[in-house]
Amino acid sequence: MYIRKIKNSNGKTYVQVIDKSSGKYKVIKSMGGSVHSKQVADLVEQGQQWIKRQTGRLDFDFTNEEQLFEKVFNCIDRLELRGLELLLGKIFDEIGFNKIKDDIFRQLVIYRIAFPKSKLKTTEYLYRYQHIDWNEDRLYRYMDKLHFTQKEKVQQISYAHTLQILGNDMCMAFYDVTTLYFEIDDEDELRRTGFSKEGKHQNPQIVLGLLVSKNGYPLAYDIFEGNKFEGHTMLPVIEAFRERYGLDKLVIIADSGLMSKNNIEQLQQKHYEFIIGARIKNETLEIQNRILSLQLKNGQSTTINKGGLKLIITYTDSRAKKDSYNREKGIRKLEKQIGKGKLTKAAINKRGYNKFLKMEGEINLSIDSEKIKQDSCWDGLKGYITNTTLSNDEAIENYRQLWHIEKAFRISKTELKVRPIYHRLPRRIEAHICLSFAAYKVYKELERQLIEKKSSISITKAIEIAENIFEIQMETPFTKEKIKRLLLLTDEQKLLAQMFNFGC
Question: Is residue 338, in this structure, part of any structural domain at all?
Answer without folding.
Answer: yes
